[in-house]
Amino acid sequence: MRKYSIWQWTAICGLVFSPVQLTAGEIAVREPKLAFVDRVTFSVDRTGVIAKVPKEGEQLEAGQTVVQLKDEVPRAMLAVAEAKAQNDAPIEVASKTAEYARLDYEASLEANRKAGSSVAAYPPTHIARLKLNMEASDLKVKEAETEFEINRLSRDQAIAEMESFRIVTGINGVVTQVFKHPGEGVQQGEAIVQIVNPDKLRVEGFVNAQDAYLLKPGMPVQVSVTIPEQNNTTRELPIEGKLGFIDVTVQPLSNRVRVWAEIDNSEHRLREGLPVSMKIANEPAAPAPAPTESTDKK
User: What positions belong to coiled-coil segments (predicted)?
Assistant: First the structure.
């Protein structure tokens, strides 16, 4: 048989046998559970070999790398793409060639113009060839410019490919679990690291369906967390918060509605899974004052 400490028995008995003490205008939340709001399990969207992951207990800030895969090959491909994206020499060569072809064509036309009505310096077929060569040279410039733009896009593609070899966290938090380690292969979507932000907790539970119609997000809540202490004793830590969510669905068997409230844990005094109770303040609106009889006499 499993053995429990005194404080564990105290918490269990309190949850099972002691109903939440309510005053007028308060609604009890049934089966409340304390859990962290931000819990992220990171994976990659490609196969690869892990190069670096943080250790359990390591503190990370948003923007830091969580998972790094080996990226020697894509890094080399990016270097090639960068070199091509910066190389505009083909455009310069094509432009010079086009300029030479234009000058050659214009010079031939000028020679024929000076010859006047006498024998032309260049026959029409020669002039036509020069014109076609000039137009083809202009197209070569456009082709070189298009190739340059494609190289820039290929560089951007290589950068995106490089980024897929690492995962960055979007939250501050502590590493709570590491499922894969450096040198291990990983498949697409496979869990690698889990990070939890302990700054904010959520108390989630249920209220009776008839009480749910009285609730609105933003209503004040009173939370009491059972904190274990030395010598197998416990103490109750009262915390105030606000109701954050009332589900739009009624549980069919229990006729209850799920609700939750978030509480601050910036001092990291609380841990997920501690025994907790919660009640929602639902003070009825004050009755409108009765109209007073007018003293004016007509």
Answer: none
